[in-house]
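Forum: Protein Structure Q&A
Topic: Joint prediction for protein chains with partners

I've read a bunch of threads here and the consensus seems to be that you should model interacting components together rather than docking separate models afterwards. I'd like to see that in practice. Below is the full input, 642 residues plus whatever partners are listed. Could one of the regulars post the assembled result?
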Amino acid sequence: MSERTSSPTPPAAPAATPPGTPRPAARSAAAARAPLAAPPAARAARARVWATRAPLLPALIFLIVVTQLPFVATLVISLFRWNALYPDDRAFAGLDNYDEVIGDSALRGAVVTTVLLTVTVVLVSLLLGLGLALLLDRRFPGRGVVRTMAIAPFLIVPVAAALLWKHVLFNAEYGLFNGLLARVGDVFGFDAPQPDWISDMPRGAVEAALVWQWTPFMMLILLAGLQSRPLELTEAARIDGANDWQIFRHLTLPHLRRYLELGALLGSIYIVQNFDAVFTLTKGGLDTANLPFVIHEEFTQAQDYGVASAAGVLVVIGSIALAVFALRVVSSLFREEGSRA
Amino acid sequence: MTATTPTPAAGISAPAGRAPARSGAPRGRSLRRAGLAVLAWAAGALFFLPVAWMALTSFHSEADAASNPPALTAPLTLDGYRTFFGTSSGNDPWPPLINSVTASVCSTLLVLLLALPAAYALSIRPVRAWRDALFFFLSTKMLPVVAGLLPVFLFARDSGLLDNIWLLVLLYTSMNLPIAVWMLQSFLVEVPASVIEAAQLDGARLPTVLGRVVAPVVLPGVAATALICFIFSWNEMLFARVLTGVRAETAPVFLTRFVTSQGLFLAQLSAASIAISLPVLAAGFAAQDKLVQGLSLGAVK
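Posted by a regular:
Agreed with the consensus. Here's the joint model:
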């Protein structure tokens, strides 16, 4: 991200703060009792700068203390041999924990699972969401009702949704899916298969439940995108004889690009961190353990704080790589937004 | 505006695809449109089906709920809800529900209290590096919470905050603060600077400007932000699972325990799931548009 973009309105007193003025909080005291030599005007300007910053500080400090300090602690713990089951055996271990994490095939499997799970769920729910949004973009009787029905999955508490899929839908004996299969079999006179969905396709089961929950989210974002489309352009193209597919391919899709990116980005942020669905549906078994689940287990079951922390640090490094890319996308998105306003 | 004679130009300004068919085969068009409407209904119904089925099952008896093929027309009963809300099973759902309300409402209020001034300092009277600050807020959202879980747990254990709902309030506040700052910033930017300047030139003091000029424009945005923060806090389970026990347990954690301790009772499970999702369902249905604004961090208006 380049920081050279101009700020919309100049800050209170640009002349008073030379570039590179340090801005730790401790300075506010210094600003208050500025050297006598400083001319009153500069002093007032400085006070004004701090008055501008002051509203930002509580949120900033709170966030740093609650979200950043724990990461520093994680980093430190990851360098220690520390298992809660052997409290006396605690010592500096250098990078041993990292060796263990990288050498652990379960953890490497979790990395693969996390990537597969995230990519599949994001892509499938984006595609389904796009289809739903296109259908809902047209005017038809009961459109509001259909939209309300379609967003319902997103409004079920995630744990409840996972339980619903596991017990009410997927259950091999009395789940809805097999029940419907059996009924179809009855009607057409054949023995319907009764698969055990979760053990036959564990990752597919987790993905299906997550896709169901996230498609409405994608649909809402894309629908907003469709409705912000300049209609004159579409109409002009239609008059020029363009067919629906051409209009979709050359006008709608380019316009939707930033909305698709936004949906993919926000979806990834949440699905990478998903814990509820994996924990509820498969308890991480059958190759479905993703990183949040594995770290949770490492720390609640194995109680190996050192290894859990090392895994946490690696996850953070992976996330930073993803985040740098993601932030670039967001920043370009919002810059466009800004230039439009 | 009073022109009554339809001109060709009037047709062009009508939204595409919604304008009456002007040429070609009108019957084919309307047939196609009806087909797409049916398809939209079918797709919406398909996504709604699991929710509808869960709602129906929650009103069935346990025997009917577990029948295969599914009993669509079985008699309805409130037994599932009675078991869930009653204390006969030894599980009282009210303390967890009250804990969830406390955690969600208090953290949402705290988020607004912290985020509103911050958003003000990033939009109306922006600090110099406002863009960097904004992205710093967002970047904290990209770090997986699970990586910070252990230190938080150790800190809570050593300071006696384990199983304390106020610890969750603080954590949920930090979890939602970045989103809230982004959203509120995007709404405050909408307040035209000229209006504020004009009010100040007229001699209005800051509280007056905030109350009379800024608040009316921003209030819908504040409502959207509050809704999103409420939903995310209400849904959260990982922190709640690790950091609470008997006293501060929240509704989602209670739900998982309810299932494992009760064996497999589909009607009860459905009733419990519906009951616990109800606040979110109600809030979300009531404010569908706000949901988009909130979830897209204000990028989609």
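The first strand of chain A starts at residue 80 and ends at 81.
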